[in-house]
Amino acid sequence: MKMEPFVRSLIAGSNIRERPSDYWGEMIRQLSAIGNNINQIAHIANATECIDIGELQEAQRLMKEVWKIVKEV
Questions:
Q1: Phi-psi region of 13 (alpha: psi -120 to 50; beta: other; left: phi over 0)
Q2: Contact indicator for 5, 14 with CB cutoff of 8 Å
Q3: Is residue 42 within 8 Å of 58, Cβ to Cβ?
Q4: Cα(72)–Cα(63) distance, rounded to whole angstroms?
Q5: Residue 31: is its pLDDT beyond 80?
Q6: Is residue 12 pLDDT above 80, yes or no?
Q7: Which of 9, 25, 50, 62 could be stapled to 14 by a disulfide with Cβ–Cβ 3.0 to 4.6 Å?
């Protein structure tokens, strides 16, 4: 961000945060891909009615926990 828009944002009361590292963006993309894969597995399992509910619930719990940690950082 250039200096003038930065100063204007500060005057307007905006909450300015530092830019996340490139690593952060890659981590988010990877987590999103994992979540998509879990959703695809769930759809296939539901369509074939061959599903282990316990494993699916565990995968869902882990994804929620991971996203919670990511949002805290």
A1: left
A2: no
A3: no
A4: 14
A5: yes
A6: yes
A7: 9
Q: How far apart are CA 43 and CA 36, in angstroms?
A: 11
* pLDDT greater than 80 at residue 72: no
Spatial distance between the Cα atoms of 32 and 54, rounded to a whole number of angstroms = 22
- Please state, in angstroms and rounded to a whole number, the distance separating the CA atoms of residues 32 and 70: 12
Q: What radius of gyration, in Å, describes the C-alpha atoms of the chain?
A: 19
pTM for the model: 0.49
Of the candidates 60, 33, 31, which has an alpha carbon nearest to the alpha carbon of residue 45? 60
Which residue type does 27 have?
Answer: M
**DSSP of 8-72:** HHHHTT----PPPPHHHHHHHHHHHHHHHHHHHHHHHHHHHT---HHHHHHHHHHHHHHHHHHHH
